[in-house]
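Reply to dn_fold:

You asked what the input looked like. This is it:
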Amino acid sequence: MNKKFIFTNLLGSFILNSKYMVIDKGNDENKLTSRYKNLFKPEGNELKDILNYFKKKQFFNEFYNKNIQLTKKQVKDSVNEDNFIINTINNIEELNKVTNTLVRRLREWYGLYLPEFTKELTDNEKFVELIQRKSKKQLLSEINVKLGDSMGAEFSNADLKPIMNLATEITKLYNLKESHELYLDRIMTRICPNMIAITGGLIGAKLVEHARSIKHLSELPASIVQLLGAEKALFRHLKSGAKSPKYGVIFDHPLISKAKRSDKGKVARALADKIAIAIKVDYFKGKFVGDTLRKGLEKRFDDSKSKR
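and this is what came back:
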């Protein structure tokens, strides 16, 4: 019997005769099948013989090149919104570390020139802004210190210049961080509108970063969402019996930070529950319910405060 087989692999679709020799090939199996009648799908020993046929050296380069193309395509297609969110929030956190380190150096350096103002103003960003805009005399007048009473040394313009240059570069980093935060808000609003309505951009992005993807975050129960970012404390609890953590990155949420210490765990559980609902709605492209979920949380805990 002169059997003909249809067989598809990485190189395309092939028609083979009973001796397992290729008699026709193409990229579309359906089109190729329409040209022939009574084609068979190889099974058992027939499939084994056909697979052995494609192990010949003549196919090695084709398989190699096809695998390279396929790998490149998969790498290219793997880039998605998760990568944008994760890289942006990671860069914001790195910028926070860098600016905090540089501001500590700036405060120490500028403190030689104007120690009273350096100690008086604790807001780093405001400190950097004011020392660039105002003179020593103006800054002292803001804290009611006379110029002659300052313990700061007199700096020449040449000595003051590198300090001001450092302040300028720190300002650029603050501006860069702000632009990243605006971008993060835009992308999170587009992809996770329900979650961001509850968490805000930064906390929502940190949750995605710890879960590694929006899909994985949507699959997590509320109890895990509550502890994302507290993995080290959780493992310490499991290993040594230390106190169990009550929350992870959601600790910075206003509802938790405003709650009494005894209520923080209860607020965290309720918040994580609503976040888990919101991210599922976002992932499965449901309707916008973020405002309803947030207002329910706010009403619940505002009411509990008023009853005390």
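The chain has a mean pLDDT of 91.
Hope that clears it up.
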